[in-house]
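User: Here's a chain of 65 residues. Predict its fold as tokens.
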Amino acid sequence: MQKKATIFWMILFVFIIGLSQDYLFVDWGSDLSLLGFPSWLGWFVFVHFLCLSALYFFSKKYWKE
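Assistant: Prediction complete.
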């Protein structure tokens, strides 16, 4: 059972790293969003929120708190 959990966390974090490599498959250009921020900023925030959430749940599972 422990091995399945380890593989799940490995796949999840590799997936998040893959999402952070968006400059390889997306040309964001110089467009602005509705609030005047660069259009890539929403993706940046989403990926980092996903990473922090995964780290939070991983630490809860690992240290069983």
